[in-house]
Amino acid sequence: MSSTEQGTSSAAPAEPTTAPESAAAPEVPESFYYVHGKDKVVHKVSAGALQHSALIHGMISNLGYTEEQAKANPFPFENIDGDILQMVVDWCNQHKGKPTPPEDTNLPKQKEKLFDLVLAVNYLEIKELLTYCCKQVAMMVKGKSPEEIREIWMIPTDAEDEAAEKEAKKRAGKEAAGETAAAAGDAK
Amino acid sequence: MPIDLLKFPNDLLREVFRLCDPFDLYILSKCSKKCSQRSTTLGRPKKWEISFWGWDELDVSIEDSHYYFIQTNNPEDYFKTELGRHTNKMDIEFPNGGGVDVFIHLIDIFGIRIVDSLEITHGSIAIFSKLAEVLVDRQMEIEFFAIGHIEQVQDVVNFAPTLSQMNITEEFRCFLKFPPDFHFNLVKYPRKMDIDDSSWFTIDELLNCTSVRIELQNSMLSNHDLDLFFRKWKKAGEFPNLRRLEIRSENIDNKSPILEMNLPIENVDNPNLGVLIYGNFSIVNSVRVAKDDGTVGWLKVNVGFCGKLEFLIPDPADYVVNSVVEGIEDNEDDDW
After folding, report:
1. Which of A60, B80, B171, B312 is 20 to 30 A from B288 (CA-CA)?
2. Contact predicate B41/B13, CB 8 Å
3. How remote is the C-alpha of B150 from its chain's centroid?
4. Which CATH class is domain A2-155?
5. Tens-digit pLDDT profile for chain A (188 aa)?
6. Which segment of the chain is annotated as a signal peptide (chain B) (predicted)?
7. Of A130, A145, A149, which is closest to B15 when you measure between CB atoms?
8. C-alpha–C-alpha distance, residues B113 and B99, integer Å
9. With an 8 Å Cβ cutoff, are A131 and B15 in contact?
10. Would you call A103 an interface residue with chain B, using a CB distance cutoff of 8 Å?
11. Contact B32 A158 (CB under 8 A)
């Protein structure tokens, strides 16, 4: 699991738990990086866990940061809510160095967060997690009627779409008229 | 808790739609026109095929998985699904009482390019005209097409120009009896032609036919026609695809020869010689005939109340010539 710091300038993060290794394997020091979301809470994550994210993996692969440099330069993901980033970091840690199973039972259960999670995972390019999340989205409508699906996936009816389109046209017309009037005023 | 799906970027929507089964996508297409459009544009990564037998169900399939859309008139049963390992069913409404509109809707939703099987087996062919025109317009491939015992034969006659343009690739089967003056030319011949009442299939059709297997029942072809056919066949390069020809015709008789052989044509010098191809089709006591290029065919023609011509052109890779007849049976349940 990741250790989490409240802000970038707090005390040194706790040492991460490392997976037990066989006695024969040579000990390779694990490198860590730091990420934070919109809430500025910094998460310490191992390079191994971050390999799941093609985006971050691409960013760190040639950096060669020391521990201090990495700590001083956390990757900012201002477009991702802190709790969502926490979920992503947790998932990456849980699946560090493991082959991803065809079905993932460790997915976050909060459906209200699913939309943001999918967007974050898509942004961070975590392919396997994205597939799981999209599957969960797809599963939401299994065996449901069109009316129920409209509700679950917030799909407007044809009438609502038409009304929205009319409204948008009306608004665009008003805006255009306003601009014309303003331009005429300027000319005077 | 709802999720605003249509606000997903397209690549995410595509991934979600990819994970939906055909029933989900069908129901989704019924949510709204806009949603239907998005799922149609994005949700077609697989090579689905469709089958329609003119009754109250359509089958959308891929490999061994079949999704049957079955007509129900009870609104309470709409969208009820039954999922199995390979066979899945969903009850739906068939608008306007027929499956044609549903068929067109399904090929749109799934971006279907191949019709696995299409059979016009009952009722009026008129409702199929619309469907056939769509298939022709979209240049869709129809692997198997069958016309059954349609009541209004004239409708089929009127349908012939469209039929001749359909891209039937594997098999065309026709059980319908046409008027004597009926005539049409297929633009492209499928691998198999199986015509139950083939009086309209003239010698000109036969001479142009590029099929692998041709079966003509109740034919009007005569000894003279067949002699013409075999003289053409003997020429190098002619009928390169043909492997099996079977014709039953009242006009096959013993009054004139075919390939200078008097009828009946059968091997009397070496009885019990059997020729077997594809492990299914056999002729016993057939006569060896050869093309100018050396290709060998085996011919047998019987005369009687209704003459029967059988002709096999084996491939050296898969044919067997046996001196023992036992075990060689004419098995029509072939898969090729």
Report:
1. B171
2. no
3. 17
4. alpha beta
5. 344 443 333 333 434 334 444 455 556 677 888 999 999 999 999 888 988 999 888 888 777 777 788 888 898 999 999 999 999 999 999 888 877 776 666 666 666 788 889 999 999 999 988 888 888 888 888 888 999 999 998 999 999 999 998 998 998 888 888 887 787 777 76
6. none
7. A130
8. 18
9. yes
10. no
11. yes
